[in-house]
Amino acid sequence: MHLELRHLRTVRAIHEQGGLARAAETLNITQSALSHQVKALEEQAGVELFVRRAKPMRLSAAGMRLLRLAEQVLPLVAATEAEFKGVEAGRVGRLHIAMECHACFDWLLPVLDIFRRAWPDVDVDIRQRLAFGALPALAREEVDLVISSDPEDVPGVTYQPLFDYAPTLVVPAGHPLVAKGFAEPQDLAGETLITYPMERGRLDVFSQFLTPAGVEPAHHRQVELTAVTLMLVASGRGVAVMPDWVLRREVANDELAMLPLGRGGILRRLFAAVREDDLSQPYMAHVLRLSRTEPLRMLRGSVA
């Protein structure tokens, strides 16, 4: 038996309307066309699907089985069609994010909280395991947005600037560098440098400060959590370099001091990498706009 969606819609309409005339009007076809469709369907099934002698016209036992199938299938089809319309209108989609920036959770989570209220039908996720292969994952469509400060030439990928930040040295309050007011690369040659567990090339302190000067810290220790790193620094067990937005809450901490890297400091830019084809999505434009404005409004603070 070859069933089509129109057959299921026909069975449901006749059951609900109680006759061919009203069902044909509901289905927007002629009564003659509907009658021929019912006859062809019954010939396929090999049984009568309707009791025509009854007033109103009602389903036979076999027809009731077909109605149960229609009641299961048609709502699923309608829901799928609605989803497709939502995708076409830009209301429905996927926003899976990977970050090459370990500390970006501080500003990204508040941004996503605002975003998901405006776009409840967009599937939002953060793919942490892809942090170190984020851009290839973007090209493979495993993720839809990558937060990065190191743009690479990837076909089909565009980089949207978000905001600038300053990598900042945090030291114990009594550290000799406090009197100097800033740090030079050689000042870290005798220090234990505490960093997030990332590749050196993706750590600003190495890529923008130490490596170009040919300087290595005395010791390099990796720590996952920002709070633990700051406790270690406060207790004199090392120094760290973090984005200024991470240190905003520590301005009043009298156990810590924050210093620029170099006399004039270093300024870096954070980008959102997205596939060029996705830029036209309304929800993508919105999350990019939030990512440019909300971190500056909510999170940026001066560091002393």
List the main descriptive attributes of the protein structure presented here.
304 residues, alpha/beta, Arc Repressor Mutant, subunit A, D-Maltodextrin-Binding Protein, domain 2, 5-stranded mixed β-sheet, 10 helices, 41% helix
Task: Explain the overall architecture.
The structure is a single chain. A five-stranded mixed sheet has the order 4-3-5-12-6. Strands 9-8-10-7-11 form a five-stranded mixed sheet, with helices on one face. A two-stranded antiparallel sheet has the order 1-2. Helix 8 (204-213) links the parallel strand 8 (192-195) and strand 9 (219-222). The mean pLDDT is 86. It has three domains: 5-89, Arc Repressor Mutant, subunit A; 93-164 and 268-299, 3-Layer(aba) Sandwich (D-Maltodextrin-Binding Protein, domain 2); 167-260, D-Maltodextrin-Binding Protein, domain 2 (3-Layer(aba) Sandwich). By secondary structure, the protein is of the alpha/beta class. 41% of the residues lie in helices and 20% in strands. The protein has ten helices and twelve strands. The chain is rod-shaped. The chain has helices spanning 5-17, 20-27, 31-45, 61-89, 105-118, 134-139, 177-180, 204-213, 226-234, 282-299; strands at residues 50-51, 58-59, 93-99, 122-126, 145-148, 157-165, 167-172, 192-195, 219-222, 239-243, 256-260, 268-275. The N and C termini lie far apart (78 Å). InterPro entries: LysR_HTH_N, LysR_subst-bd, MetR_PBP2, WH-like_DNA-bd_sf, WH_DNA-bd_sf. This is HTH-type transcriptional regulator MetR. Belongs to the LysR transcriptional regulatory family.
